[in-house]
Amino acid sequence: MSLSELVRRRPPVVTPGEAAPPAPLPTRKIGWRVRLKRDRSLLLMVTPAILLLGVFAYVPMLGNVIAWQNYSPYTGFLHSQFVGWANFERVFSNPLFVDAVVNTLIITAFQLVFFFPIPIFLALLLNSVITPRTRTTIQSIVYLPHFFSWVLVVTVFQQIFGGAGLINQTLRDHGLGSGFDMMTNPDTFLVLITMQSVWKDAGWGIIIFLAALSTVPPEQYEAAAVDGAGRWRRMWHVSLPALRPVIILLLILRLGDALTVGFEQLILQRGAVGADVAEVIDTYVYYQGVVYGDWSFAAAAGLVKGVVSLALVLGANKLAHVFGESGVYKRA
Amino acid sequence: MNATPTFGRLGDHAVDRRRFLGLIATGAAVVGIPGLLTACSTTPPPAASNSAAAAGDVIPKYIPVTYIDPDYPSVNGSVPGYEAIPDELVQSVKDAPGTGVVYTAMTPLWGTIPPTKGNKYYEAVNDLLGSEIQFQITDGNVYGDKLATVLASAKDVPDWVCVPTWNLPPRFGSEIVENVFQDLTPYLAGDKVTPYPNLANISSDAWKFCVFNGKLFGLPFPGEVITDAIFYRRDVLDGLGITPDIKNGQDLLDLALELTGGSVWGAEDLWNSAAIIHAVPPKWKLDGDKLVHRVETDEYRAALEWNAALFASGAVHPDAVADQSGEAKARFQSGKSLIANDGVGGWHEAMRDNLASNPAYWQQPFDPFHADGGTPVLWKGNPANIFSFLKKTDDEAKIKELLAIANVLAAPYGTTEYDTINNGVEGVHYTRGDDGLPVPTELAATELQPTYIFLVDPPISETHVQYPGYVKAASEWKANAAQYATDPLFYAQQIVEPQQYASIGQPFVDLEKDISRGRKDMRDLDAAVETWKASGGDELRAFYQDILDQQS
Amino acid sequence: MSTQTTVRPTPAARRPRRSKHRPAWEGRPSIGGQALKTIVLTCVVLAVLFPLYTVILTSLSTQAETIRVGGLVTVPGELTINAYTQILNGGIVTRAALVSTFVTIVGTVVSTTVSVMGAYGLSRPGSFAHRPILFVFLITMFFGAGLIPTYLLVSSLGLINSYWALILPGAVSAFNVLILRNFFMGIDIGILDAARIDGAGDWRILGRIVLPMSRAVIAVVALFYGVGYWNAFFNAILYINDNAKWPLQLVLRSYVLQGVTLPGSGVGQVDVATGAVTGLPIKMAVMVLAIVPILIVYPFVQRHFTKGVIFGAIKG
């Protein structure tokens, strides 16, 4: 029997989302030699990726040893003097660093609520547009801002929302006062940068969700409709479950990135609202470490960030298990 | 999802670019227009300043050479101006000094990358040199990153490396320069420079700035004496019937406010101007016999208060309040804001960009004034803004050949070499227009990117004759301003600060913006100064005090 | 795109003006819902199109026009295609475009192949060393390497000035591998088991079942990689010294810098004499040119988003 016949014989009526997660291969009962032999093709498949990562990610990662050194590029990390945990102490002892961490977490939390769901919502909305031409047209427009540089995004926002921008100028022309300068107001900065992120990247973000939705066989919608489910219930019971695994994955990975928020976007607008609200970990490290060539400091801060991120991912993964999701990985 | 930025790092490095333009001012020399040969006179222009005290023994002897007499001679070290177009050129180096080999050179470039193969411009200059310079060109905005990585492994360092002052890698002076680059003292110090007359024509201050650890390492790209100015749109103000007569800081605040209304604002962010009119020292100042850092001075405080008053008055363009400084020139040139600070080199660039579409365009710098109405103090800019270094080698002949090549590249205005480097080849890269001005060909746009200027440069001259009235106005303004030029403390000295103090000044960069925009006040400044002292400022003071004691 | 429009009569079928694309089982939406949807989508599209319009318009304006308005142009004034001709006439743009195309195609093929294999190899929990291998990927997402160590590595491998230096260091993105793996793990285990019972090995299962069923996500990941390779410029700054080997983005960036004119450069004269465009129009033209290849490629990716297409593919 050919594979295609096989597929036809067993139509996949279960969506990826609702599919039982692949049953773990039995581990305990089988010795590792047997498993090695059994899984050798799987291991062979992973090998190229592991090799590339080994050479191009892990070998240079050894350079992070400078976090424990008083590093100078010319001396090199083989000969620079070791200074113990001094660089880490410098990272933590600076009150400005703590402020930067707080700002970073506030921005992450805000964007998790007001940015993260928007691509999902947009994908579902687009999916519900039935005319293929309209759907594909809109799809191929909304992702374009992703390719604009941040410099341009900020300029565009300034020209629309700035004190001399379209809105305020119109208000002034009609004698309605000078309005509200959103671009320089520290209090609304969170809203501003989230709007910018949504505008730039939400359209690009829907692509993964569209790919996930495309795995839902139309028969499922039909079956649900026949069972009397309205469009909301179909969305809830068919579309969303199809998206769930990828949503969970992205959510966990986003949490892992909790300490990373738009570096370039913030550095461009730092002067407008002040470092008190716009200083985040990456900009702080940039100024303290990179601008002044304090590579050791930058490496130490990077390692701290890495450890925290990894911990967040592991934590989020655990949390996912609690809610019955498989998350990124699951103990077999 | 995909984290790849499109034009990723533009933002981070915009600062460098702006700073660069500010520093360069009119820079080397622009339209090298073939010209009127008067003579190969050697009238010494007034020395740029009292030179070479500490570094006296290692720098080359200053032997000025002039191929054409300037129409506006240098006054107190100001840039000489040439109103006429020389129509006969002197070849300052008779025979090409090179031995026909290929040398590699790494330079930044702020412009389109020219083709390296079959480029007639490169061929013409290389003919003058006798050897070929093969360029490794890097996008100027990220040149610092490239430099820091390349210098990390000496084996990839090319024969000749350009190092802008603002891209000096950390610990350059203490660790890199002596290990990677050639000490030029034995080749150029004192009279030894005489085989290279065009190098001897470069001011002592510029050379002095190339001395690291008591040895001459660099070749300079000389800078302007006065680097910055406060410009206003004279054409617009004329239209409004306003003839500004600014005698002090209050006058400028009043003018900015008067000009504000409708969709026009009086000023951009004038922080640099505030520092100029309050004579804020660039780094240190001697108060009696005590060293006072810039951020501790009354001048700094007064400048901040003045700039905060400007912002508070509402005269600053909202986009400037939002710190969108990248578009500041666009706003100023479009007349949306009418007063702005800029490097003096921004003047002729603005003429270039605007005259074609707006023949009446004129921006004029205010004559220097002090905020309190007294005598202005204008701190001199760096005597050189860019250096180049030769890779360390035992091959004496190679160093001598490279220096002889540098001697060709440093040929001043009025020479064939200067003309070729700046304009390319007549009939290929430009043709002569009716008025004698060179008209560039289409090929010039592609091929003519004078990366040679990043290796070594002659002293600056003002030669923008193509903008009517410009050379006169600029030369006169510069001559007037130069009388107030004052050496800052530690002028023209390469001082390698201990690495641990590198970043303690950073909070003030933020504070200057915060206080100007009314987000913070003088109490925050006091606190920041205390923090600065505690986190190394006082140690830094002691470090400089030591240097001062050694020099007296 | 259901094929059953005519099979099942529904209330909606009674209406004469129903969309031919709406499946029969799908009821007609409420007027309010439809209106709301239209309004939201229109706003979204306008929010994207208006800035896009100003960017394109600015790229087609003269520099004088941008100076007159003092920023991005919103009302068409003096128009010219000079910015584009200036860029496209540049000596090395064509060559750079070829370099970029080559690097992007080779890089995308290498990255996608390696990632798909890696993701499938990781898609069976309980396989040998499954979790440690997963962590090898995961860790690279959070611990980076500095510029200098990476440069020293590339230099010691002799890859300076080699196109491989633009491909290999970033060839595997753990993020993309995890996305692929997530989709692979969603495939109904029944199909895979049945295939295995029929004697198919993992290579055959990957090639004949998993790949055809995962076309959409593979297209997306290939797009991510492709965009990454196409837009990358910083690695070329570090690793490519020979300007003739520069990729397009680096050459285009140099046009953005063109507005910054230095003393001694010939550009100043060019502006006066020929009215060549610099500044804002060039910057915007570069932005537009950078998007064009994506515009060309995107429809090929989008094809795979169409509902139901994957099953058709397998049946065929």
Question: What do you see in this structure?
Answer:
The complex is a heterotrimer of chains A (332), B (552) and C (316). Chain A is an all-alpha fold and 332 residues long. In chain A, 66% of the residues lie in helices and 1% in strands. Chain A has a two-stranded antiparallel ribbon with strand order 1-2. In chain A, helix 4 crosses helix 16, helix 11 (218-226) crosses helix 12 (231-256) and helix 15 (281-291) runs antiparallel to helix 16. By secondary structure, chain B is of the alpha/beta class. Helix content of chain B is 36%, strand content 13%. Chain B has helices spanning 10-24, 120-129, 143-150, 172-180, 185-188, 197-200, 204-208, 234-240, 249-259, 271-277, 298-312, 318-321, 328-333, 345-354, 396-409, 416-423, 442-447, 470-482, 506-516, 522-551, and strands spanning 102-109, 132-139, 160-164, 211-212, 215-216, 219-222, 228-233, 265-267, 284-287, 290-293, 337-343, 363-365, 378-379, 384-390, 430-432, 438-440, 485-486. In chain B, the strands form 6 sheets. Chain B has a 5-stranded mixed β-sheet. In chain B, strand 9 and strand 10 form a beta hairpin. The relative contact order of chain B is 0.19. The model of chain C is unreliable at 1-16, 259-277 and 308-316 (pLDDT under 50). Chain C has 2 domains: 32-79, no CATH class; 83-314, Orthogonal Bundle (MetI-like fold). Chain C has 316 residues and is mainly alpha-helical. Chain C has 16 helices and no strands. At the A-C interface, helix 1, helix 2, helix 3, helix 6 and helix 7 of A face helix 1, helix 4, helix 5, helix 6 and helix 8 of C.
